[in-house]
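Please decode residue identities from the backbone states below.
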């Protein structure tokens, strides 16, 4: 962590203790994979798998419990490793949830990003909107401007606004409540950790240079092309409209899957999957 920004942008050569080898690129690639494998490992307590997608990682809000003295240092270190990987055109292990790439780029998050973090919670919030739209009384849900966190079986209540426990959610302030709870779930609860990661990342990569990327491109550059299981993708596809009854057996759907399987390379498949799912 004592390296300067100039040091981080130098060419690094790697040598593993007790192993002979010349770093012609392979050792550097292995180092980035091994280090990020360890940090993103849920057993470390710093990250955890997303509820909506087990292949994507999200910051553990309770990371301080796992590393009480230095958990923020690990996030700063990871930010530097990610920045160095991007600078050196190396890949890291561990795909983050979608909205975290938006945070790195300074893009605004949306309510739909909440679905990628917790689909059930997002669905429950949509039900509140549906109630208000049909002029049902939201106060019947007995909600206030707080959020309940549960860590190791202990529940704590977080005020979304000052004295939130005494502010009732009504049809009139529902949108304010949804905005605040979305902001808390996606950023505020992990703000200390992610701020450190950003500081480390920008130690290597100047922020203006990232304007050439969108969040999907940034994920591909950092993590590389995923190995896509087309059979699993096909089995878990939802069909609607005129395709709902016949599904994959419909002639048009058969043509579609044949084209994706036979004519699309890994990059095209990854871009298509990102387009239709957002991840």
């Amino acid at each position: 962590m004592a390296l300067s920004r100039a040091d981080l942008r130098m060419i690094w050569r790697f040598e593993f203790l007790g192993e002979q080898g010349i770093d012609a690129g392979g050792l550097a690639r292995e180092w980035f994979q091994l280090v990020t494998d360890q940090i993103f490992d849920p057993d470390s307590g710093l990250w955890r798998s997303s509820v909506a997608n087990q292949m994507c990682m999200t910051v553990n809000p309770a990371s301080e419990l796992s590393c009480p003295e230095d958990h923020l240092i690990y996030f700063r270190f990871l930010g530097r490793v990610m920045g160095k990987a991007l600078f050196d055109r190396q890949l890291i292990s561990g795909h983050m949830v979608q909205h975290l790439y938006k945070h790195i780029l300074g893009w605004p998050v949306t309510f739909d990003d909440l679905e990628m973090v917790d689909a059930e919670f997002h669905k429950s919030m949509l039900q509140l909107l549906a109630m208000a739209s049909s002029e049902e009384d939201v106060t019947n849900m007995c909600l206030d401007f707080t959020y309940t966190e549960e860590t190791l079986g202990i529940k704590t209540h977080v005020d979304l606004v000052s004295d939130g426990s005494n502010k009732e959610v009504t049809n009139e302030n529902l949108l304010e409540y949804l905005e605040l709870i979305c902001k808390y779930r996606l950023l505020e609860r992990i703000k200390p950790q992610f701020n450190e990661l950003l500081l480390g990342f920008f130690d290597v990569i100047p922020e203006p240079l990232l304007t050439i990327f969108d969040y999907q491109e940034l994920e591909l550059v950092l993590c590389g092309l995923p190995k896509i299981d087309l059979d699993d993708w096909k089995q878990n596809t939802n069909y609607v409209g005129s395709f709902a009854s016949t599904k994959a057996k419909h002639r048009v759907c058969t043509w579609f899957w044949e084209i994706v399987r036979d004519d699309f390379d890994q990059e095209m498949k990854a871009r298509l999957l990102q387009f239709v799912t957002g991840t």
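Observation: The first strand starts at residue 47 and ends at 49.
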